[in-house]
Amino acid sequence: MARDRQERGWRLTKASWRLVRRDPTLVPLGLLAAGCTAITMAAMIGFVTGVDGHGAGHGSRVLLVSLLGAFSTTFVLAFFCAALAHAASASFDGEPLTIREAIGEARLDLGTVATWSLIAVGITFLVELLNFSGGGTKPLATLLALLWAFFVTYAIALIAIAGAGTGEAIAESAAIARRRWVEQLSGAIAISLFTLLAAIVGVILCAVGASAVDSGNDALGALLLFNGIVELAFLIVLSFATSQTFIVALLRLDGEELSLSEIESPPPATPIGGSPVLRVSGIIAGLLVTAALVGAMLPHNDRRDNDLGRYTPEHGYYYTTFAPGSEVPLPAGAPVLMEGRQIGEVLGSRIETSRVTVWFRADPELEETIEDNPKQISSIGGYYYLRVGPPGGNELVGPAV
After folding, report:
1. Over the stretch 306-351, which tens digit does the pLDDT of each residue have?
2. DSSP of 121-154
3. What is the pLDDT of residue 302?
4. Within a 10 A sphere around the Cβ of 142, how many other Cβ atoms?
5. Over 50: is that where the pLDDT of 401 sits?
6. Are 12 and 260 in contact (CB under 8 A)?
7. What is the mean pLDDT of the chain?
8. At what angle do helices 2-22 and 58-92 cross, to 10 degrees?
9. By three-state DSSP, how is residue 265 classified?
């Protein structure tokens, strides 16, 4: 019996994979979901890091911005999951939707999706509190997170396809997960194995490309990195679209709306218009944008602080560099002194191939003085600090390079 259910899960996985390859909407929708979620997440991180201050209320502001960011990211992802559910369900019926139609259907579920996202963020927040509360609660928090993810697998699809309310969707999803856990688990394992094996190629390309860049062969390294990132990005999108399609397939099988044979052999799709060339071009363009964004975030030896948006001397952020191999015993928070008074603090340091970079924050009005004076690492009574000014007698590291 268990073997039959496991085989059923594999067959549903293969049927979902075939549908994703055939349907012209599912992969572009998955790409759109990944791109919008990544942009929202990046914006969230930017807002959190942009919350200045160290006094009373700073922690509360960071927490509030973090929760709002988490809700926004969860909502965007859930919205596109609902659009994918609509598109996959219609395609199983032989009536594929365009991207605009799938998103239009998902817009009807906005209120319920928003409520679901709020509950999901709340549960995640409680799990994280348990995770960091100490006293050996971390394993319990991990277990609760896994159970929550397992039992709400079908919630978004139920909201989209069945028009269920949030509470009803959660309860029904848990019931389906209990009934279909063998098929669900076997399908998840199949998709994960496929993703893992296919990802090896992309990881190898990225590793070889990074090694080539470090060796000075920038052109070859950039080409390999680009191809590796594109392959991994496309793999993530493909795996995501297949997973959402599998959820819809198992949901409709459980509800006896479609038989296994009907899922494996859906009706011939009615053409939905649109040039295949334009669709492929859109996918490639999306992957290029994704690769460019990822590449822009990768560390590079020639990167300067002025490339990092608001982290410039105008906003009080500076950096200095030392020769490669230098010991830089400056932890975050170490003082920055000039003429015997503290003007700032060290933010951190980074060992790179050709140098050691120290980042620090100081008064923006001192920009010209800080830029014009040499920097040294000095110590007093075993305490290390970064000194701005002429060389002294207690230097540990030579002048910045």
Report:
1. 444 456 787 788 888 888 777 788 888 889 998 888 899 998 888 7
2. HHHHHHHHHHHTS-TT-HHHHHHHHHHHHHHTTT
3. 39
4. 13
5. no
6. yes
7. 80
8. 90
9. coil
* DSSP one-letter code for 268: P
Regarding pTM above 0.90, the answer is: no
Most confident of 55-69, 294-308, 356-370: 356-370
Q: What pLDDT score was predicted for residue 303? A: 39
Tokens 């050996």, located at residue: 136
Q: Is 55 helix (H, G, I), strand (E, B) or coil?
A: coil
- DSSP assignment string, 293-353: HHHHHS--TT--GGGSTT-SGGGTEEEEEE-TT------TT-EEEETTEEEEEEEEEEE-S
Q: What are phi and psi of 83, to 5 degrees?
A: -65, -40
Residue 127, judged by CB atoms within 10 A of its CB (0-12, 13-18, 19+), counts as middle
Which one, of 122, 126, 113, 90, lies nearest residue 169 by Cα? 113
| Phi-psi region at 263: left, alpha or beta (left = phi > 0; alpha = psi -120 to 50) | alpha
Tokens 């009934």 identify what position?
Answer: 179
Distances (CA, A) of 24 to 104, 242, 243: 17, 13, 16
Strand 383-388 with 335-338, pairing:
parallel
Residue 107 has pLDDT above 70, yes or no: yes
Residue 283 · residue 31 · CB < 8 Å: yes
Q: Is 298 left (phi over 0), alpha (psi -120 to 50) or beta?
A: beta
Please compute the mean of the pLDDT values over residues 23-30 and round it to a whole number: 87
Binning pLDDT at 50, 70 and 90, where does residue 94 land?
A: confident
- Name residue 347's amino acid: L
The three-state DSSP-derived secondary structure of 88-113 is HHHHHCCCCCCHHHHHHHHHCCHHHH
Comparing C-alpha atoms, which of 91, 92, 115 is closest to residue 101?
91
Burial of 97 (0-12, 13-18, 19+ CB in 10 A): buried
